[in-house]
Amino acid sequence: MADSPKIDPDAVRSLWTAVLARAVEDYRYEGATKESLAYKKDARQWAACTSYKGVGSFSYVCEALDLEPEAVLDRLKRGDG
Question: Is the pLDDT of residue 1 over 70?
């Protein structure tokens, strides 16, 4: 049986940081392009679903980064996150 590849925790953290950063950018989008408005809608729906905790969910990503999902969402809603 082959050995499992080693997982670099810093690389994993960097990945989730990039995912959250992009979601924040999309969430805050203020332009009018159709494609970007769709991304904004998707980001807002993703962030609003804090009850789902599966891999890749907003809650999962926040918790992987030692952030409280509800606090991050509150900051996004206020516009200071």
Answer: no
